[in-house]
Write a structure and sequence with these properties.
This protein is an alpha/beta fold. It contains 13 helices and 14 strands. It has two domains: 267 residues, Alkaline Phosphatase, subunit A (3-Layer(aba) Sandwich); 105 residues, Alpha-Beta Plaits. The strands form two sheets. Strands 10-9-11-1-12-13-2-14 form an eight-stranded mixed beta sheet, sandwiched between helices. Strands 3, 4, 5, 6, 7 and 8 form a six-stranded mixed beta sheet that branches.
């Protein structure tokens, strides 16, 4: 293959895994919740086998799928963005990254406050939209930083853009990232800027993620080492701490990410274009907005044929996810431990039921084989089954 486009529909889970209850997730299924909405209309992904995937028959199977399809079970001990993407890129994480259900201890906050010269507000797991409404006024008045976490391994810093300039907020995040190593090595430090006035604070698209550097070589490293293009669209550059990419661009929305993907489809490159579309998770999943999530999936599906029309004989597309975030699961607003769907399409791809596979890392193994790059992966390639 000359070009491979790998899309991560962030949080688009495909149902409860056997170990989901151990993560506090019972009966979860992101796509099933979306199917309850009248706004879900995904005929193009269904045509490639989305409804033929085991457990997703409620979406409507087709008699003759045009692509290869299946679902993947995560083997890493987590349900967050970092661990999910690392596994897609070939790294299995047997130990969970640290989480802070009771907030961060003083041994974390003390050095951070000393280095930034600012106090800290909140310091607990909270919804990002809720925390700025509760603590926004005090932050504006005092300049103290809103620091919070979630069920994921994250250290999040929220600040009003008129109180803490963006570049200053980003510098505070870099300070936190440098400090949070070892036993406190959280997966991501996240800048969460917001704007507005009391009672009407709103987060902006100027979010930045500062990830823990991957502990081993990833698919991106291998592609770059081969001298091929390794293009990161959206959060991908941040998730991999900037490693293994030859070019990157950030997204302001799903629509913007699709524009970037279309741009690269119209370019002549050789290698991998790795795309994350985060609105499914950030805007709809965490906010438990079923209709919004369903509508976003429908918009991606409606865009897909125009994108596929740009592809040549030696191009291939994979569509998957990194975890779940079931918008119908009201026990929590956090990610949900789920299988993820996998669709493979392209002019050389033959219809195939890939079944249920253990480990997202089979994607890395397959992409590496298709691009003829060297990568040691604890998973099997399915390249022969799809071509």
């Amino acid at each position: 293959m000359k070009r491979i486009f790998l899309f991560v529909l962030d949080s688009c889970g495909a149902g409860e895994m056997p170990d989901s209850p151990q993560f506090g997730d019972i009966g979860v299924n992101t796509l099933r919740s979306c199917a309850q909405s009248a706004k879900l209309h995904v005929p193009n992904m269904r045509a490639y086998g989305l409804g033929n995937i085991d457990g997703l028959e409620f979406l409507g199977p087709v008699a003759e799928p045009k692509g290869a399809y299946g679902k993947l079970a995560e083997v890493s001990m987590g349900k967050d963005t970092t661990i999910g993407h690392w596994e897609i890129a070939g790294i299995v994480s047997p130990e969970p990254l640290p989480t802070y259900p009771d907030g961060f201890p003083e041994e974390v906050l003390g050095p951070f406050k000393a280095a930034t010269g600012r106090g800290v507000l909140a310091n607990k797991p909270m919804s990002g939209t809720e925390v700025i409404q509760i603590y926004g006024d005090e932050h504006v008045r005092t300049g103290d930083l809103i620091v919070y976490t979630s069920a994921d391994s994250v250290f999040q810093i929220a600040a009003h853009e008129e109180v803490v300039p963006l570049e200053t907020l980003y510098e505070y995040c870099r300070i936190a990232r440098a400090q949070l190593q070892g036993k406190h090595g959280v997966g991501r430090v996240i800048a969460r800027p917001f704007v507005g006035t009391s009672g009407e604070y709103k987060r902006t698209s100027n979010r930045h993620d500062y990830s823990l550097e991957p502990p081993k070589e990833t698919l991106l490293d291998a592609v770059k080492a081969k001298g091929l293009d390794s293009i990161a669209v959206g959060k991908i550059y941040d998730i991999f701490a900037g490693r293994g990419t030859t070019e990157h661009v950030y997204n302001t929305s799903n629509a913007n990410g699709m524009e970037h993907a279309m741009h690269y489809a119209q370019q002549d490159f050789h290698g991998l274009c790795f795309v994350n579309l985060v609105d499914f998770d950030m805007v709809y999943g965490h906010r438990r907005d079923i209709d919004g999530y369903a509508q976003a999936l429908s918009e991606f599906d409606a865009w897909l044929p125009e994108f596929l029309a740009q592809l040549g004989e030696d191009d291939l597309v994979m569509i998957t996810a990194d975890h779940g975030c079931d918008p119908g699961y009201l026990a929590t607003t956090d990610h949900t431990r789920e299988y993820v769907p996998l669709l493979v399409m392209g002019k050389q791809v033959k219809p195939a039921d890939l079944g249920t596979r253990t480990g997202f890392q089979c994607i890395a193994a397959t992409v590496a084989q298709l691009l003829d790059v060297d990568l040691e992966v604890p998973g099997e390639s399915f390249a022969k089954e799809i071509l």
